[in-house]
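help with this:

***
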Amino acid sequence: MAHRIHVVGAAGSGKTYLAAAIAAALTADHHELDRVAIRRSADGRQVAPLPWPERRAAAAEIAERPRWVTEGIYLGWTEPLFAAADLIVWLDIPWWQATWRITGRHLRKSLRGENEWKGIRLLLRFLWSTRRYYLGLGGDPNREHDDGATDRRMTAAALAPHAAKVMRIRHGRDIASSIDWRAA
């Protein structure tokens, strides 16, 4: 049974949703890596990226725990999590599905008054920027504070050394049905 699971994928792929569901099923701690990578104000708003040494130390500390579920798009500083995971789930869904999910999330948060990225212009800018992941336009994911460098090709390369424990899910409809989390 897997006790340490890392979920990786592009923005809008369903990482947070899946990781929360797995963590609940396994009664494991759920760690959103956006919360590790980005310093936040007291009210939860994003302020500034944390330095890589702090990120890597936090990832290493989580990796040492006996039971966890982590999720994020990040490469480089997350290698301790890749190495320690019993199972890595790569949500490699098509761009159109990710844009649909991102748009839905944006609208739901806006209607509830919880969207810190207000307005259609910011939504469109974000949707356009997510194309970089799918088109392979990333830079160097090991360069500090270049979180936008991550793309599908680099994710595949980062996961290659861990191939025996990677489950790649290529369509949103397969996310919930791919794994029996009680037996994972």
